[in-house]
């Protein structure tokens, strides 16, 4: 068995603090930088203007990212810096609407990527999809159990189910010590998105 086959792990970034997605993206970028294929599946995210979406083209063909969520109607303006998020909440409402089937589509896409033998698969915000009963915990456990020995899977989101944490090889909890939003500083382009 090669060392590549031995290195696959289940990694979790959870907690109420910021940095979970950023940490997971770091793992994926490190893998891509080492010539491994990394894929990010973003559950319940569809803003369309986050920096990671635009940076993916620089890491092609080793890094890919796909969002499954409601697209922001002013995403182009936000990305260009002409507008800021209005905090209307429409994206959160639509992302959690079971009729949109965003989370089941994301899970099915993750399964397709597993069949294509990616080296690192990031399931970003998957715990929210489970919490809101948009996908079943058992389906996620089956996906984790179905990975090849060399594949690493990174899962993010608050309130990660204990059953998933139990399966993990590495679990980290992010917590806020201090954040600019507490001082009235809104999300910043290039830093938070």
UniProtKB/TrEMBL annotation:
InterPro entries: CblAdoTrfase_CobA, P-loop_NTPase. The keyword Glycoprotein does not apply. It comes from the Bacteria. Keywords: Transferase. GO terms for molecular function: ATP binding; corrinoid adenosyltransferase activity. GO terms for biological process: cobalamin biosynthetic process. This is Cob(I)alamin adenosyltransferase. It comes from Sporomusa malonica.
